[in-house]
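COMPLEX REQUEST
Ligand: DP6
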Amino acid sequence: MTATPDPRKQFVRQVLNQAQTLGLSQPAEGEADAPVNIALCKYWGKRDPVLNLPVNSSLSISLPGFGTTTRLLWRPDSDVTGLQRLTLNGTPISPEDPVFQRLAAFLALFPAADQGRFDIDTHNQVPTAAGLASSASGFAALVKVMNQAFGWELSQEKCSLLARLGSGSASRSLYDGFAIWHQGLRADGLDSYATALPQVWPSLCVGLVEVDTSQKSIGSTAGMQQTVSDCDLYQAWPKQAQKALSTLQLALETQDFATLGKTAEHNALSMHATMIATWPPILYWQPQSVAAMQTVWQLRADGVGVYFTMDAGPNLKLLFEEQDRPAVEQAFGNLTILRPFARA
Ligand code: DP6
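STATUS: Structure written out below.
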């Protein structure tokens, strides 16, 4: 009886165009980095959980200078294959650790994993505040370093396709600045990747409000699956996201900050509404999350242009412009502030 081929392995082979992966005989090594990103229009729900295909397109802003740097060494002259050693910020990770297993499973999709051993050192420069997701920058950096070390010469779009298989939001971490992950229509997933948007916004600030950075009770992968299958309100989500995406694109083109902020905040709250309306309910908020939302709303009532977004966790990410920074800092006190276009 022949085993059914793994659709993810097939997908990787299609993207790599097989010829580029044959005959690996020399050791390969390299280093690459990728930024974390924050979605202004969220990815929430998969239409295909195996190929990581989303229900809706999403739009993000990357935070250059914050993310993951990954060093890779691959050796063919070894009796063992696949991921053998993983260090995270200098500490070895045990093969029993879910982080090791997730990475090993991802690498196993690539022909090189059958032909040699991988040793990987990864460093996260992700601020501890606000629990920024390092899986997005992690998978993006890993694909970038493989592209470089194995000389695949894949375009950023193709790297985005591969990073998507590791974690959906990683598809957007190939780029600095704003990016759109296009949901795509094809069943084979070859049209579901992110592209960069040309707009820059030099005065844009992102403030990280730390409420709680401990491990969440339910991760985003399980959270979105549960919402898709058990929430009646979820039906309204794709339409909300589609509208938010078009409005955000227009706001970027016209550099209309109030529309950008309002749309991002509304989109995040709509996503959380679907989680809350799931049974059993998923509520990531803590009392301090709600208190921070109320501070944002009070600031706005006082004329300060500040908005928030939230991912699958209790922490807030504030969006404001440089001119409003003093008022926001005063209201929130100890705030980590990042400038996505500081170098633009
Ligand atoms: C709420 O990309 O972490 O942050 O594809 O299952 O790995 P998987 O999920 P992941 O989900 C991110 C969800 C989000 C919204 C977003 O970043 O768009």
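REMARKS: DSSP finds ten helices and 13 strands in the chain. The CA atoms of residues 265 and 310 lie 8 Å apart.
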